[in-house]
Automatic annotation (TrEMBL):
Domain Isochorismatase-like: 6-147
PANTHER family: ISOCHORISMATASE HYDROLASE (PTHR43540:SF1), PEROXYUREIDOACRYLATE/UREIDOACRYLATE AMIDOHYDROLASE-RELATED (PTHR43540)
Any Pfam family the entry gives: Isochorismatase
InterPro entries for the chain: Isochorismatase-like_dom, Isochorismatase-like_hydrls, Isochorismatase-like_sf
Source organism of the structure: Oceanimonas smirnovii
Top EC class of this enzyme: hydrolase
Protein known as: Cysteine hydrolase family protein
Any GO molecular function: hydrolase activity
Keywords noted in UniProt: Hydrolase
Gene3D superfamilies recorded: Isochorismatase-like
EC assignment: 3.-.-.-
Amino acid sequence: MKQRGLIVIDLQNEYLPTGKLPLTGIEAAAANAVRVIADAREQGIPVFHIRHEFANGEAPVFVPGTDGVNIMSDVTPAENEPVIVKNYVNSFRDTDLKQQLEAREIEEVVIIGAMSHMCVDAGVRAAADMGYPVTVVHDACATLDLEFNGVTVPAAQVHAAMMAAFEFGYATVVSTDTYLTRS
C-alpha cells in the first residue's frame, strides 16, 4: 500500500456563515472533514493543513491577522501537523507543500476542503500533474453559488461539475462513508 497523506485545504472561518465568504453546506462538509481527519490520525496518516492568506491585503477576504484566516475550531491541527500558509489558489504554488510530502514519503494524497471550484480544484490538478494518485472526499468539500454572464449557477451544480471533472481525469471521488470503509 502506498504511503498516503491527507491535505486539508482552507477550512477557515472565512467560509463559515459568520465569515465574509460563507459557503453552501460548509457545516456538513466540516463535519465530514472532522471524521476524515480523525480517521487519518488513528491510522497514522500524515495530515497537512493549508491556510489561505492574501499577504498584501489585495482582497477583502483572508486578511492576515483577522479571525477569517483562522482554521475552523472543529478541524484544529494537532501539534505534529504542519500548517502551510499559501497566498495563491494553488496550495503548491510558492509553498513547501511538495517538499513536505516528499519528506514524509507520501505517494498518494487525499484532498478535502474549500472551495471545490477554486482551491480544491487547483490542489487536485496540481497533485495529479505531479504524479500523485488523488482521492477527493466530495462531501468533505464545499463551494458557493457562482454567477457568469447573468446566469447564476447553484452551489450544488458547481460542486457536481467539479467532482465530475475530477473523476473524468484527475482523481477518484468518493463520499466520506465510502472513504472511511475502504481506508
